[in-house]
């Protein structure tokens, strides 16, 4: 089991590499919920998402042999860019397997961070088999985006910073997709402040974590149809175990609620947040009656959204 | 003449009312300029702009008689909302004269902050005459948006916070419209750090401050055709005098450069910034060769931009 100590150790390891992201507040949102919300803005993190914390924590613990051979991931999202940057900062070679139909802007960004891109077909099978071939050939270390203790410990460091800055909280909210962020958040929050309730927020259109949590076994994520592209993945065995043990509830939000949350962050807080990042605010507004006069931490997970997508979703 | 002491006194007066806005950095932008830029993010200030600092500083110094009668401004922009909020926080009545064709969202926001809106025709003459009638009838105190020592001192407090946080700077950049922000910035910067160069940035399509600065007399702003709507005003006698004495140069930027700067702030820094607020970054990129290996403060003045306008300008 991952402990608070693991997260504190991760924090020492990554402290000088990450951005200590600001905690923001909004009097408008505080009025809306009749409570106090503290937004941990990981959209300001390196590569625009919390993922950098776990990636750097993981890559910095590789053995000399693993470092020499390099790392690999199959992802077209924030994990790919986070791993590419963390590896390049530590002088390690990174290979990213991406579907051939990935948006050019993501390919470019990952390349700019110094990674080698290898394209595959747009299926899970192709991604896995292309990655496995490369691992066999070059001895790369595969870095899983969330079902990995070091990734989870890295993700938890955001909550250490949040609690250090604002003190005790009644609730902490974070989005759940694969479960890396909410797992790290829960371990850090319960470790530092056992009375704090930890709430995962998930799009109703990708509610596999909710169903898994309620049923006590992992459901796959089948055809998730949500704009929160970072939350379409399913839980891993590691994250599922932590969530079952430490998360107090999972709240579901609609697509419309996600869009309204993005809009509120944009208009009132002047923050560019990706749909997955706005999900936790959507959850906060949904559970309004429970958080009355409470102090609530809200993890904003990332801000990587294409201008055109953003506009098409919001207007 | 306004002094550093006036700004320090203003800071004591407003400290508990304002948001101490974060200073942000971007490794992408630092790489672009081969220097270090520190962004003072007044888009996160109350009402979304630095204007709140000066408004609160001014309203909090009114005499009991003035407080009892209330304040007035003619504006449809950030000054109106800043004055409305500052007055309401201090229990003072505010009246805002707005052109009848003002965007509904601005009217609503100003009303939400507790002000009474009085509409006028869409001409300067109508605004002035409607305001004067109300002043005569009710004894309101007119709060000018920039040509006012208390407004200028309030605006300067952002630079006190910036320098306190990041230490000595080689340059400080701020946009210039009516000149309130750049005046306060210059007094604070030169007072705290005489070697710091103070640069005003202005849209080339509204270059009245530039021409006034070069010629040594105030030119009116005639048909300014810039998306930076906050910078269409002309200098006042007070701001002109300070700018002549303390500003080291005025840099002009094109509309395209302003749009590119907004886009960069959006995509790379995840910041929602209005065109006037992005002007100082446009200036920074324009004077790239001069700021090499320098430390530069960049004042981001505000973030109030309608979603649709934003998209239409950027895509």
Provide a short characterization of the protein structure.
The structure is a homodimer of 315-residue chains. Chain A is of the alpha/beta class.
Structure description:
2 copies of one chain form a homodimer. Chain A is α/β, with parallel strands linked by helices and 315 residues long. The first copy, chain A, has 2 domains: 4-49 and 149-305, Rossmann fold (3-Layer(aba) Sandwich); 52-142, Rossmann fold. The first copy, chain A, contains 14 helices and 10 strands. Chain A has helices at residues 4-14, 27-33, 51-59, 64-69, 78-89, 104-112, 124-138, 149-166, 180-192, 208-215, 237-246, 255-267, 275-286, 307-314, and strands at residues 23-24, 36-41, 71-74, 94-99, 116-120, 141-142, 171-175, 197-203, 249-253, 295-300. In chain A, the strands form 2 sheets. Chain A has a 6-stranded mixed sheet, with helices on both faces. Chain A has a 4-stranded parallel sheet with strand order 5-4-3-6, with helices on both faces. In chain A, helix 1 (4-14) packs across helix 3, helix 3 (51-59) crosses helix 5 (78-89) and helix 5 packs parallel to helix 6 (104-112). Chain A is globular. Chain A binds chain B through residues 22, 24, 27, 43-44, 46, 48, 263, 266-267, 269-273, 303, 307-308, 311, 314-315, and chain B through 22, 24, 27, 43-44, 46, 48, 263, 266-267, 269-273, 303, 307-308, 311, 314-315.
